[in-house]
Design a protein that fits this description.
alpha/beta, TIM Barrel, six-stranded parallel sheet, three-stranded parallel sheet, 39% helix
Length: 327
């Protein structure tokens, strides 16, 4: 069986057309965002929508729960959909909802989305106070039930404390190294070394605000960054988390950045001059374009086996180790 193709973060405006592109692009599994600032009940409404899609398009997509679903997707020519939160809002202030959400199929949860949460500090706060008391307990509970701690939008101290406190490897599902591009959302060498040395995974983002050169970033620059990261951290800890927002209207940026917490637009990774979504680089516009990344990586010093791992094999191994409950 061929190596799997896994994108470990998308927030597209999903539709049958995108599901068909996943199929045509050979994408075996996608981790999709089903909550930003939603409450538990609002998140359940998003699950209902996905249930309808699973019912209406069983030839294209199905709900992923474990690593075996990726192999089933490969065998069936379908795409396994894994759920995740970009914010802990759906668990509200109830630690018992961690297990309930896992039972509903959620496999990833960020401890923050840019702001301070009940669990940790986001990367846009001035003062990073690390994991809170609730944060430490929630990480322990996530470890127990088999939900992955995701620190993609978290600040440095909080991320390092999560790596240290977690008894299972954690993930940064969609970010790039700050030594390549110094966006606030990208991660320092210190964080990436700690993450990967503890067995964690980083998924490289193709969202233009995370790229050196933004929308004009070249494929060769991106692939050279991945090549350098493999030298520093080991190719077996690297994957793709594209942060693809395909077909989303610019208006959705306001929900992502502001939710209901502010009366003012928080431009975050964008700019006041252009508060909507930036143009994607010409070499990656959606699920049909993962072959461009693979071919670009094969032009570097990375071996074919290493490229297979980065394109999905490493995430599959991580799924195998991460999604099962502990006694």
């Amino acid at each position: 069986m061929r190596a799997p193709l896994i994108d470990n973060l998308q927030y597209a405006n999903f539709s049958p057309r995108i599901f068909e592109e996943m199929h045509d692009g050979g994408v075996d599994a996608v981790h999709v965002t089903i909550a930003y600032h939603e409450s538990f009940r609002e998140m359940v409404l998003n699950l209902e929508r996905w249930n309808r899609w699973f019912e209406q398009h069983p030839d294209l997509i199905f709900k992923g729960r474990g690593a075996e679903c990726v192999r089933r997707a490969q065998a069936d020519g379908r795409t396994a959909i894994f759920f995740g939160f970009q914010n802990p809002s759906p668990i509200e202030d109830d630690i018992g909802l961690v297990e309930i959400c896992h039972q509903l199929g959620v496999r990833f949860m960020q401890l923050t989305y840019n702001n301070q949460s009940l669990l940790a500090t986001g990367c846009y706060e001035d003062d990073d106070t690390g994991l809170t008391r609730m944060g430490r307990q929630v990480v322990t509970e996530m470890n127990r039930v088999g939900m992955v701690v995701d620190m993609s939008h978290s600040a440095e101290r909080s991320t390092l404390e999560a790596i240290d406190h977690s008894t299972r490897p954690i993930a940064i599902t969609h970010a790039n190294p700050a030594w390549w591009h110094g966006a606030l959302r990208n991660k320092s060498d210190t964080v990436l070394r700690a993450l990967t040395e503890a067995g964690g995974m980083v998924g490289f983002s193709i969202y233009p605000h995370h790229l050196a050169g933004g929308s004009d970033c070249s494929l060769s620059s991106f692939c050279q960054m991945v090549e350098e990261a493999s030298r520093r951290y080991g190719a077996d800890r690297l994957g793709i988390g594209s942060d693809l927002c395909q077909d989303q209207p610019d208006s959705i940026v306001e929900w992502m950045r502001v939710g209901r917490w502010s009366k003012q637009m928080d431009y975050g990774e964008g700019s006041a001059d252009n508060p909507g979504f930036p143009a994607m680089p010409d070499w990656f516009g959606g699920n049909l374009d993962f072959g461009n990344i693979r071919n670009g990586l094969l032009e570097t010093s990375l071996t074919e086996d290493e490229v297979d791992g980065i394109m999905g094999g490493n995430w599959l191994r991580f799924y195998e180790d991460s999604f099962g409950a502990r006694p």
